[in-house]
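Everyone, study these two lines:
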Amino acid sequence: MKRILAAAVVATTVAASATLPVAGQGQGQGSLAAAAPALVITAHNGNPVPANWTMPKTPWGEPDLQGVWSSDDATFGISRGGGRGGAPAPTGLYLNDEQYAARVKQIQQGVVNAEQNATSTFRSDFARRAFRQTSYIVDPPSGVMPQTTAEARKRARIGDRGTFGDGPFNDFDSFTLYDRCITRGIWGSVARVVYGNGNRIVQAPGVVAITYEMIHDTRVIFTDGRPHINSGIKQYLGNSRGWWEGDTLVVETTNLTDQTSIGLNGNGLRHSDKMTMVERIRRVADDMVQYQLTVNDPVTYPTPFTMSIPLTPLDGGVILPYECHEGNQAVRNSLSGERAEEREVTADLTRGVIRPRRSPNEPAIVRRGATPPGGRGGRGGAPAAPADGDQER
């Protein structure tokens, strides 16, 4: 089923006031990008951009990235790994013909299921196009995202998983910023999840703005040469400055907090405030944009790493409203549920039943003192939701 489009036109004016250079800027413009990999174009399945294709330009002469794009078609994993049913792991960045044919069939069946067989009033977004790409990660060449360091893992906290974890839930810090409808961070706002994968890009002379559909963040990226803000000012999405290298928009982001994560929906172990990011964004066809993001956080990861994926047109072409706070019951229900479980544990204790606190991911049918099927897992004994959080409440 295609998206139902019922959106009002919203006019947004970005006032770009001039800023003066300040002390303590850190590395100069371009130094981070110089150390990051060049753009890896995967959108053409390992082939170059067609020579007969012409890059569209804005009226003021810059490459035109504008449109409403989506990662819905980026159906491959973050890291390269084995296939379903014990299939061997791809050894390169692209599937072979047999593997690609299987993916095409899977995508086609997914379209049929979504458009003809779905019965729920809630419809997840789905892919329409198959790519040969085997992983988001293109550097290191293994296609495997580096593990966090042992030292970084000492910072792990209950709130890294939030409602996708086992709690306990005692206050706002027990939840992710995604649970709290604040932000998913830059990485988490681009990586494909079950829905809400839209990215709207608009341009004006000296500025590019990117709006993310879920949690409705908007980044304003100045391309007029102004410096980064003072290094002492930290922001959830950092401070981004961009420039054009030929047809590619290059963006350096600094001034990040240590409150977001590199994971699906922005969940997982938090990075440090020393992290920097480099993005390379280039239109490679009328209906494709190549998006690349390099992460460098020596406090959290042993080496930098880079993801690069094709973005394709969002079904319907409109970013849908995402009234997160207005409909968010996750925090309230988790806190009230935790208090109810505390009362149940106390009541059981007075009856001589000694049992551990029940995890919120255990089946609701579990009775006092009973052993839940499958232990401390998900529904019906299934594993608990992953820390990355590719689900929505």
Residues 72 and 174 are 30 Å apart (CA to CA).
